[in-house]
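Running co-folding for D-glutamic acid.
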Amino acid sequence: MSADVQQPIGVFDSGIGGLTVVRALLEQLPHENIVYFGDTARVPYGSKSPQVVREYSQDDVDFLLSKNVKMIVVACNTVSAVALDVVQKRAHLPVCGVIIPGAHEAVLRSPTHRIGVIGTVGTIASNAYTHAIMHECPQAHVFSKACPLFVPLVEEGWTEHKVAEIVALEYLFPLLTKKIDTLVLGCTHYPLLKPIIRSVTKGAVHLIDSGEATAAAVKAMLIEQELFNPNRENPNVQFFVSDAPDKFTHIGEKFLGRSLGVVKKVAIGK
Ligand code: DGL
């Protein structure tokens, strides 16, 4: 059965962070219907083993498939890094992760090809960004660093706090000594730390927002697969989580840059 352009794009993440990707999608594809799922009952994924993240991802995909989506966007960097193949195999639909678009943008923007990558422990351990960057640009030098304290800082709302600045300096200093000219923000939460990262890097490093790069890749994919919705009406954007919808609604506004409306709690997995 061929997909209908009005069907929603399915987006999933380990929790709330994927809303930065939805925000970029809404900016670049303002008329697409979207179903978002955040696995808030099992977040974080970034500190879990690849095996567990791969299992969880199957449940996330099954939920989106039950919503009759036309494509799947894996907003979570950790899932994109360790389980994209699982998603592709399960979905039988076009799938877009965040790693390849982010890596592509970094290669395009980096004048000296000395590129830093920051992300969760899982994303950095997988070397997925390094492989994707080296695949496009074999002469690149990639320096990566896991920044596990960034996610809780952002969720606490401490994006402009002195503590966040100290933590950012501690994490980023080793990358700056490698003379990187570009830094991939390889985690859904990190775009909210852009002001502090800019100040720590003294504005001398290009910051790559994987979410923005992904939204551009999704648009290209929709057009290529003839799934782009030409309808000019306001889209239907629905949010589902596996736990604590009120907390999601409250914190989510900062990530999305606008109010979310109704957030529904659903049971997934066995
Ligand atoms: N969404 C995750 C990512 O982009 C960050 C939060 C988590 O660890 O689950 O990797």
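Result summary
The chain has two domains: 3-97+213-265, 99-210.
Strands lie at 9-13, 34-38, 71-74, 95-96, 114-119, 141-146, 182-186, 206-209, 237-241, 263-265.
Job closed.
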